[in-house]
Amino acid sequence: LTIGGIDDIQKLHIRTVPLGEQPRRIAHQPASRTFAVLTSHVSDVTNEESFYVRLFDDVTFETLFKYRLDVGETDSSIISCSFADDPASYYVVGTAFSLPEEVEPSRGRILVLRADEGRLSLVAEKEG
Alpha-carbon distance 27 to 9, whole Å? Predict the structure, then answer.
C-alpha cells in the first residue's frame, strides 16, 4: 500500500506500507486518527481468498486491528461518516456474498464499524 500526500509547501510525501495482502479500498477518519483499508488475501495452502477490514494508525501506519469478513463475503466499498443524530464517526462497509452458481451476488451486508482505542467494533449490520 502506498500513501502519498502534499504538505503546505507543495512537497510530495510518499510512504509504502507492506501489507502481505492486496489493498482494495481505503478510507481516512480524522476523528480516530485512523485509516481503514479493505484487503484480500489468497491462502498459499488452500488457494481460498479471504477479505478483511484492516485498521491503521494514520501517523505511524501501524496495523491496529484486523476484522475478517464472513466466508464467501467480499468487500465492495468503505466510507468514513457520521449520522445526523450521532456526531461520532463510523466506518461503513458494503459487502457482497459471491456464490459460485450466481452470475452476480444476490445478497450482501452493510456493516457499521466504530474505531475506538485501536480496535474496530461492529455497531450495526443489515443484510439484504
Answer: 25
How far is 54 from 33, CA to CA, in rounded Å? 14
pLDDT digits (tens, 9 = 90+) for 7-59: 666 666 677 888 889 999 999 999 999 999 999 999 889 988 999 999 999 99
- pTM given for the model: 0.85
| Three cell numbers written together for 11 | 512537497
C-alpha cell at 104: 452476480
d(CA 66, CA 69): 10
Instruction: Determine contact, residues 92/112, Cβ cutoff 8 Å.
Output: yes
Closest CA to 61 of 37, 40, 41, 79: 37
3-state SS, residue 48: coil
Closest CA to 58 of 77, 25, 36: 36
Report CA-CA distances (Å) from 15 to 12, 27, 58. Answer: 10, 16, 11
> Distance between CA 40 and CA 47 in Å, rounded?
12
